[in-house]
Structures are given as C-alpha cells and as structure tokens.
Amino acid sequence: MKNLTSWGLLLFLGGYLFSCSQSPKTENQETLAADTTKQQVCSYDLLKDSARIAWTAYKFTEKIGVNGKFDAFMFEGNTATQNPQQLLESLKLQVLVSSINSANADRDAKIKKEFFGTMTTSDTLSGYIKEIGTDSLSIAFKMNGIEKDIRAAYKVSETEISVISNINISLWNASPSLAALNKVCKDLHKGTDGKSVLHPEVLLSLSVPINKVCQ
C-alpha cells in the first residue's frame, strides 16, 4: 500500500511539472515571435559627396605613375533602389576638368592649359554605363568631343561601387594634346635614359560609398 501511494505521488508531481512547462504563450511572447520572423526591407543609395574619381598617368620610359584626382563631378541615376546593382545600371557622370588635383599646382595648371585646353571640348569629361557583364562593363566615355566605348572592371557590394579602367587617349584624338603637355614638361618627363616620355595610357578609377537603410 505504501509503494502504491508513493507511485501515485510521483505521477501527480510529474503531471504538475509537465503542465507547468507547457503553459500557453502569452500575447507578448506571440508578438515577439511574429516580429522575429518579419523580413527586413532594405534600400540603397549613393553617398555622392564621398565619391572619389582618381587617375594615374605615366611618365619616363620606365613608366612611373603620377597620381591625381578630380574634385568636382556630378552624378545622375537611380536612387533608393532595393538592389545596389541597380545603382550602377543607371549611373551617369560628368567631371569638371578645372577641378583636376595632382597635389601640384604648377602641374595642374599645365594639364588644364596644354592638355585639356587644346581639346575641342575642354571643360568636361563624361560617361555613362551602357552594358554590364559578369565581371566587366561597357562605358560610353566622352573626351575631346568624341565618344568611345571602353571596358572596365567593377565590383558592387552593399557598401561600395568601384570601377576601374585603363584607357589610351589616342582613341579620342588626344595625341596632339599629350604632345603639347609633354613639350612644356619636357625636362620633368626625362627618365634615367635621358628621354622625355609621357605615355598615352591612363588609369581611371571611380569609387562611391553606398548608404544602406533597412526597415
């Protein structure tokens, strides 16, 4: 009889504990569970004021780089998209030549006057995205009044767009402008071999931070 009573007590306690552990969810708990399953919606926009357009020209026979940037430019394109790739698809850009900055005022003045100043269109450079591939894209780039398609490598993330391309300015009939610049910088462009050389290849790069907002 004692054993039976003990077993009954154990069953009663077990049932009580089980019922406590399976208590129904409160309204607050159900609301919290619903909130955690709610999917966030994010939008992306370009931080245009933090963008950077840089260039590298090459002097001397051994092709030593000279770096610079443009400080003034204007963007057009999609804003507040739900996919950062869409920001790149519609991107258009116009650069003010007068804002060229190589950290050398004398050099900048010569580039403005002798290089860009001898072109048909001397105040702006412009470009827009024509086609985007898996790892490269096509840009319609306009300089010296001539528009040519160039290929560029690119990367798009949730935090930044970056584009980089090597161009040859002779494609824009800019060889005479290059020669004019090299003439006034003749001694400065002499390398170890004594030859004054300014190469037609220029590296262009664009980087634009992206602002991500989720709700």
Which structural traits does this protein have?
215 residues; alpha+beta; Lipocalin; 38% strand; disordered N terminus
Write the layout of secondary structure elements.
Blueprint: H1 2-21, H2 27-36, E1 42-46, E2 52-59, E3 64-70, E4 73-76, H3 84-89, E5 92-96, E6 100-101, H4 105-115, E7 124-132, E8 136-143, E9 146-156, E10 160-168, H5 175-184, E11 201-214
Antiparallel strand pairs: 1-11, 2-3, 2-11, 3-6, 4-5, 5-7, 7-8, 8-9, 9-10, 10-11
Helix pairs in contact: 4-5
How would you describe this protein?
With about 220 residues, the chain is an alpha+beta fold. It folds into 2 domains: about 1-35; about 40-215, Lipocalin (Beta Barrel), CATH 2.40.128.110. Helices cover about 25% and strands about 40% of the residues. It is built from 5 helices and 11 strands, in the order ααββββαββαββββαβ. It has helices spanning about 1-20, 25-35, 85-90, 105-115, 175-185; strands at about 40-45, 50-60, 65-70, 75, 90-95, 100, 125-130, 135-145, 145-155, 160-170, 200-215. Strands 1, 2, 3, 4, 5, 6, 7, 8, 9, 10 and 11 form an 11-stranded antiparallel beta sheet that branches. A hairpin with a 3-residue loop joins strand 9 (about 145-155) and strand 10. The N and C termini lie far apart (about 65 Å). The relative contact order is 0.18. Mean pLDDT is about 85; it is low at about 1-25.
